[in-house]
Amino acid sequence: TGLCLQGRLSFKPWVDRNGAPQAGADIILQEFQFLPGGRRDDSNAGAVSEYAPQGMPVQEIAQQAAAY
Q1: What pTM does this model have?
Q2: Is-contact 65 25, C-beta < 8 A?
Q3: What are the backbone dihedrals phi and psi of residue 64, each rounded to the nearest 5 degrees, phi first?
Q4: Residue 41 forms part of a structural domain
């Protein structure tokens, strides 16, 4: 079973108490949909995980986005 998420990222730069620039990211979910399940063949095995790692925690995604 797959999951399709639609939304946007909002990036907010800020400065910490030591004067170091920081970045925060908000993930705003607008829509989601469960996709039909089933096994996929090996020809597509790497396609999805290359762009959107499965099982990746939202906090880790936000941290990576803030690093940019």
Answers
A1: 0.36
A2: yes
A3: -65, -40
A4: no
Q: Which two tokens stand for residue 33?
A: 């949909």
DSSP codes joined into one string, 1-67: -EEEEEEEEEEEEEE-TTS-EEEEEEEEEEEEEEEP-----GGGTTHHHHHS-TT--HHHHHHHHHH
Determine the pLDDT at residue 22: 92
The whole domain housing 63 covers 2-34+48-67
What's the total number of domains in the chain? 1
Q: Encoding tokens for residue 56?
A: 């990746």
pLDDT computed for residue 18 by the predictor:
96
Distance set, CA 53 to CA 2, 14, 16, 46 (Å): 12, 28, 30, 10
Mean pLDDT, the chain, whole residue set: 74
